[in-house]
Automatic annotation (TrEMBL):
One Pfam family in the UniProt entry: Phage_int_M
Protein family according to the UniProt entry: Belongs to the 'phage' integrase family.
Protein name: Tyr recombinase domain-containing protein
Organism taxonomic ancestry: Bacteria, Pseudomonadati, Pseudomonadota, Gammaproteobacteria, Pseudomonadales
Keyword DNA-binding belongs to the record: yes
Length: 469
């Protein structure tokens, strides 16, 4: 038997609503206190009973629809208890904040603003470039400033030292990269013995983050990527300097052994082997500058090759031409190369599609050092790099009496200031001096290679041989 409702209980029953003809209301407050709005039921002409929260605000009635009354289990809508619960909630708001409709509108506006804020933050986060984006962006920025070989080498280093071994780090936002991530990239390079490459890789990473720190402030920037960087995580990482490559130069015996056997070394192609000989025959020119030459840079009839030096921060903007005299030995080497690669744009290439990548000579010398050819009188020849051939030629000239200023001019070393400016404007201006030095070097090289006995020739200042009686 249903309990009887108290005489003071103003709550509306389900039967009252079901039999409702017009309107009926009760206090919205759960304790039936007045002044906090009312729960009102009203039957519409269609027969549907609708429930409202009604509140008087500033002398006017404000109605807020709560829902439709659910007359039976098969109908849509809410029970009296459910509609009363909604009204109770609104009454609590009225007790604390007064105008319920205004309060709810304010809350909705605040929630929409918060959602918009989170959406904007999410969009910003999505737009921020990853570590991989930053390094690729940096590589692209170097295309008009560095040589094609340098750009290609950057791409190779990115693939072999970053993208392939560390995909998860590459996917991180650039702004979230910390020094420990940089160490995770550099340590494996160092541990496999590539200490010079670890140092170069660290230098490239520092440059890439410096680029990212400033690029977003450039007016007219075409790339829309943003990085939001606040620091350069690579700048605080240090790579221990290696001193061995700084002083390494081949002795005459080592130079002769290398010259005579490099073309017979397994893994070293014929053009690569001739490249090393050509570097030596021209007095130790920078191997990268030679690799970048095309056949148009060679005038074998005049006996010259035109190199373009882009050493330093200026890159291509500060490039300067350097005419190098070609001795009979150097021309003979180029004639051999022409028989192999005469149909290609570059002399120093394997397949003709592009010149050697800058790392190829290093690998080729490593192949020679690890071969049986690099053993003299049972003693293993210490390792060296392509750059050490330049130092070897410089010291060879020094030992045979070539003045430092002439040696520097032939190797285009330290040609800066007013001298460098004049040299860049007129690359032929110093060709006579270079020819005299080239002849002196050729005689010294012939001695080092055992082609001429040192006691049988004396080199005068004109590079002429004086035979001793």
């Amino acid at each position: 038997m249903a309990s009887l409702k108290s005489r003071d209980d103003k709550r509306i029953t389900d039967m009252q609503v079901r039999n409702l003809k017009g309107k009926i209301s009760e206090p919205a407050d759960k304790d039936q206190k007045r002044g906090f709005g009312t729960l009102l039921f009203e039957r519409r002409p269609s027969g549907v009973v609708e429930a409202y929260f009604r509140q008087r605000v500033g002398g006017a009635e404000v109605w807020m629809k709560l829902g439709v009354y659910k007359g039976d289990s098969r109908s849509a809508g809410f029970t009296v208890a459910e509609l009363r619960s909604k009204a109770n909630h609104y009454a609590e708001i009225a007790a604390k904040h007064g105008d319920v409709k205004a309060y709810l509108a304010e809350q909705q506006a605040s929630a929409e603003a918060e959602r918009a804020k989170h959406q904007r933050l999410a969009e910003i986060a999505a737009a921020r470039g990853s570590f991989a984006d930053l390094f690729v962006d940096y590589i692209e920025s170097r295309r008009n400033k560095a040589t094609p070989g340098v750009v290609k080498e950057l791409g190779r280093l990115f693939k072999t030292n970053m993208a392939n071994p560390h995909p998860s780090i590459m996917q991180m936002k650039a702004r979230d990269i910390r020094p420990d991530h940089i160490l995770a990239i550099l340590n494996p390079i160092w541990e496999r013995g590539s200490k010079v490459q670890a140092e170069r890789m660290r230098s490239f990473l520092v440059s890439a983050f410096n680029y990212g720190l400033t690029i977003e402030s450039v007016v007219g920037r075409a790339n829309a990527k943003v990085y939001g960087l606040e620091l350069n995580p690579a700048a605080v990482v240090r790579v221990e300097k290696t001193s061995a490559p700084v002083t390494r130069a081949l002795s005459d015996t080592e130079l002769c052994q290398f010259w005579e056997t490099i073309e017979n070394t397994k893994g070293v192609g014929p053009v690569m082997a001739i490249l090393f000989k050509f570097v030596i025959a021209t007095g130790g020119q920078r191997i990268q500058n030679i690799i970048e030459t095309t056949w148009d840079d060679y005038d074998l009839k005049a006996g010259t090759v035109r190199l373009i030096h882009r050493k330093g921060r200026g890159g291509q903007a500060m490039s300067r031409p350097h005419l190098v005299p070609l001795t009979a030995r150097a021309i003979e080497l180029m004639s051999r190369v022409k028989e192999i690669n005469g149909d290609h744009a570059w002399p120093w290439t394997t397949h003709g599609e592009q010149p050697f990548v800058i790392s190829s000579p290093t690998h080729a010398i490593a192949d020679w050092v690890n071969s049986s050819h690099a053993v003299i009188d049972g003693v293993k020849v210490p390792g060296f790099s392509p750059r050490d051939l330049r130092r070897t030629c410089s010291q060879l000239m020094q030992r045979h009496g070539v003045l430092d200023v002439d040696s520097d001019l032939l190797q285009s070393h330290g040609q800066t200031g007013l001298v460098g400016l004049h040299y860049r404007n007129n690359p032929k201006a110093y060709l006579p001096e270079k020819w005299r030095t080239a002849k002196l070097f050729e005689k010294a090289l012939a001695v080092a290679l055992g082609e001429v006995k040192e006691s049988s020739c004396n080199l005068n200042s004109n590079g002429e041989t004086e035979t001793q009686e």
